[in-house]
Amino acid sequence: MEFIPAKRIISGYAKGNAWFGNNYNMNIYKGCCHGCIYCDSRSECYGVYNFDEVKAKEGVLALIGRELKSKRRTGIVGTGAMSDPYNPYEKEYRLTRGALELINANRFGVSIATKSDLIVRDIDVLKSIKNHSPVLVKITITTADDILSKTIEPNVAVSSK
Q: Is the dihedral of CA 105, 90, 148, 146 positive or negative?
């Protein structure tokens, strides 16, 4: 995995997105290696070339810590819209877990979209966030058929997991 420079990680405040309920958006990783055949994020309109190659943003946890402290309003930080925050590299680098710990320490809520069973590793932090703010976890299960799942989402945890 390659690390790429970043100036900002968390978007500015939005007055509550009625569809997703997020006030902020955060992308720690750029790209996704799930290989889903129906993936909208691979579209050329987003300008993410080599989308199948996951890259992490340099110094991401320090940036997130500074950005959360500088926010005038707390709110819900959403992640996982473009790149799954629980891609296979997360197991080693633990950047999403670190971000969740910072979100918790700064008393923000979180909304996560993922296709990975790795999220269960972070249940303790999610429960801690839930003590003061909303927590929403969205796990995509495309099909109950593990063989079909591997055909259309080759690098995702099978549904039986």
A: negative
9: left (phi over 0), alpha (psi -120 to 50) or beta: alpha
Higher pLDDT, 16 or 111: 111
pTM over 0.85: yes
Strands 29-30 and 55-57: antiparallel
Q: How many Cβ atoms from other residues are within 10 Å of residue 82's Cβ?
A: 17
The pair of three-digit structure tokens given for residue 50, joined into one six-digit string? 């080599």
Q: How far is CA 81 from the centre of its chain?
A: 7
Q: Which tens digit of pLDDT belongs to each residue from 143-158? A: 999 999 999 999 888 8
Please state, in angstroms and rounded to a whole number, the distance separating the CA atoms of residues 74 and 67: 11
Distance CA 24, CA 22 (A): 6
Q: Do 26 and 78 contact (CB within 8 A), yes or no?
A: yes
